[in-house]
Amino acid sequence: MAITLVGIFDDAMQARQASEALTQQGIEERMVRTTSAEGSSSGESMGAQSGGGQSGEHRGFFAKLLGLGEDNEESGHYAEAVRRGGYVVTVHLEDEGDADRVSEVLENAGAVDVQERVQAWKSGGYQGYDASAEPYSQEQSERDRQTLKVMQEEMKIGKRAVEGGAVRVRRYTTEQPVSEELSLREERVIVERRPVDRPATERDLAAFKEGTLEVAETHEEPVVAKQARVVEEVVIDKDVSEHTETVRDTLRRTEVDVESAGTQPTPRTRDFAAYEPEFRTHHDAAFAPRGSPYDRWAPAYRYGYDMATDPRYRDREWAAVETDGRRDWEQRHRGTWEEFKDAIRYAWDTVRGRRYA
Hints:
Layout: E1 3-9, H1 12-24, E2 32-36, E3 39-42, H2 55-66, H3 73-83, E4 87-93, H4 99-108, H5 114-123, H6 138-144, H7 202-206, H8 272-286, H9 294-309, H10 318-332, H11 337-352
Antiparallel strand pairs: 1-4, 2-3, 2-4
Helix pairs in contact: 2-3, 8-9, 8-11, 9-11
């Protein structure tokens, strides 16, 4: 039995991603149509127009597409979404057995809950679709749309010089008493009188005249002379060495869960920190023997986690996403894909095999 499914999106990027995901799931392009205020497209690019773009025609389009009357309230809701700048993706299925799979693709791409959106419009004064109303301005569309900022901290590591102490070298003079034994010579004149009784000789007679004899006395005294000598040199220099430290911190990231009011929460994947113990265990077995620390491989595990939780990839097989993953990795990271592929693939397989509600 044929069936038509409808998804409403807030921007063209989401609608385009939904259309691409549907074709990747095997839905023929001709069965997928995107409608916006600019026009509608079927199996073509978003810019190609194949139908009228006037707001008054959209209600009739949806009524015909869904098999509803032109006054039907539901068809008016879809027309109102287009008037307010939204994008409506309709999927015609020949077999309703594919409905659940298509619905999941639309939801994963960001399709909004129609009834919740209508209630939000009504809180702002909306009473029903008016074909004569002017299309929403960009300012009005932005005012209606609520945006939650998803933030993630990044760690930037730098270096600075920190004074860790000082060595003070002071030069001063000391005095030290010294002593040394020194032998000094001293002369004294000794006059000795000796009685003599003998005949005078010619030499005695020659000396028999007046005269004065003066004999000088001398003595030695110590003389001290000092000379400065270099006996030691003190050389002041710096020894510079380098060492490696691992800087660890905790980075915060905003996570947003989307669920319909009054319904069970939508299943989601655990955050990266919940998987990291498994990633460290895998690193210790696969890469630690090479002498490579976990911090070197952490970006690869993170990248595999992000791929597995990305709506563009999480419903596809590895062979279908590896080319895109390789290109994106080598544009944004250091190191080749081949070097880090094993860690990325391990994270991908781990996350996809460990979904929980």
